[in-house]
Amino acid sequence: MKIIYTQNFQNQFYDLLTYIAKHSLQNALNFQAEISSKIDDIVIFPYAHRQDPQMNNANIRDLIFKGYVVPFLISNDIYILGIYKQNLWKPNLSEISDLTK
User: Fold this and answer.
1) With CB atoms 3.0 to 4.6 Å apart as the test, which of 4, 20, 58, 80 could cross-link to 28 if both were Cys?
2) By three-state DSSP, how is residue 88 classified?
3) What Gene3D superfamilies is this protein classified in (predicted)?
């Protein structure tokens, strides 16, 4: 199993890091390193994370880190779908459907 970052996640993560860096570059770098480490650890026990409450799919889980939610899809690989704060995620169902094919 390997980690695959969707374009949606990459765009959201870039925007988030850019926002944090406006206030503190060091905080942005620390946040990036810490959350990247947590994402890398998903491979070890992917089902240890909570099932996403918006999706009726046991293979879509949420990594929660410092108030941010990182939804991911467990398939042959782990697909990182996005990053959001609290309840702001709007799942892209067509993207998820494409990943499970």
Assistant:
1) 20
2) coil
3) RelE-like (3.30.2310.20)
